[in-house]
Amino acid sequence: MARRNDELAAVIAETGWSQPVVAAAVVRVAAEAGVDELLTVTRSHIAMWVAGTQPRGRAADILRETLSRRLGRPLTLAEIGLARDASDTVTRSEWDTDTLTALVDMGRNSMDRERRRLLTGAAVYSVGGLVLPRDPWWDEAPQRARSRAVGPDRRVGETEVRAVREMTEFFARRDQRHGGVDGRTALYQYIVDDVARYVSGVFSSENARRALYSAAAEAVYVAGWMSFDASQHEPARRYFTLALKLAAEADDAPLAGHILRAMAHQAIDLGHTRAALDLASASVERKRYDLATPRERALIGVVRARTLAVDGQRSNAIAAIHRAENDLAGAAPSDDEPQRVWFFQEASLAHETARTLWALGDLDGALRHFRASVQHRRTDSFNRTHAVTLGYMGTVQAGQGSIDAACQTWARALDAMDGVQSGRTREAARTMRAVLSPFRNRGIPSVSEVDERARSVLLRVT
Prior knowledge:
Layout: H1 6-15, H2 19-33, H3 43-51, H4 59-71, H5 99-105, H6 113-120, H7 135-146, E1 155-156, H8 158-178, H9 184-199, E2 202-203, H10 206-229, H11 233-249, H12 253-269, H13 273-282, H14 294-310, H15 314-329, H16 346-359, H17 363-376, H18 383-399, H19 403-416, H20 423-436, H21 445-459
Parallel strand pairs: 1-2
């Protein structure tokens, strides 16, 4: 006879949810993660699990994430009485794990269960994993790095820093042109084979150590961004977290703000408003905004504007947009800007402003800024972003009832998708088909053409 799962019952009681509400929440998380076999979970499933029946397949992981989100902290399987082995019984905070160990583990070829889930994208995006450590952790991070045991006597200095930055720039520019699906595993392997070795080296000075750690953080950040663009959301979150740890150990406040901005961007896109707002708020704290260059301040600020808009803070969102505009206007080519902000120009600001106004319900304003973004963008270097912008622009036009105009815009978006492998462009194609579905059998040539082209995009193997 199965033992009643008192641990699970206690955690459910802590949430304040009834079993039917838990079941509905499990279905929502399963739908987000694409775990279709759990879309039929009901109160009876929750009751059976509390009674001692072991959940099948991915159910335990989905249940854990569901309850973690409700409680605002990451739970282990052991805490809900569903530990499968010893590794499930220990809480391993990503913030407390050694950075170098995590860096090496990032690209290991071991095929244990967790590694397989991360590489296939089947791991559930952990909202609980977005909870940031308190101030003492950030204050102590540089000293933790300085006291880390070093490996073989390899001297690390300017040459290695320059090598990492050059490789990172290559992948960042490639991502903008071709999307994050193709090529990211090559970056992962470079980080394991070379970057991790540099991090464990012997530095000629504290400045050299900080420069190398910053370069390593940017490389891992780009790996995370490529994973995000490939719709590998939990791996992306983990890479962003690791990049943020490296930035903290480098005592590089602006870089930490840059990464937190990316984490907020991802959380907004996935619908986690409160987590996104917390991350965006953190991106401007602890001098992360104050010490950044004007261009980077504009980037950090406009993403924060969108989180404020999604949270319904209209006046604050508009004020944040104006501040970002002023920051970008104050950026000059002569500024000593980090390479990571090379992409953020007028077109990028207009794109993010449009998304912010869209979230506020200002479709006319959103459309105006999407058009400005398209007008200013250099399409030869930003194919992926250009396609995504046109996809959003067409959706706004359709929302205004202009289906023919939307189809014209979407046709341009589909043109721009040629040679791009990106989860976000695929999502744009799915949106086109969903919006056009009521018009599919009305014999409208433009609708039929766009619908068929979007279907072809979704049939591509990525």
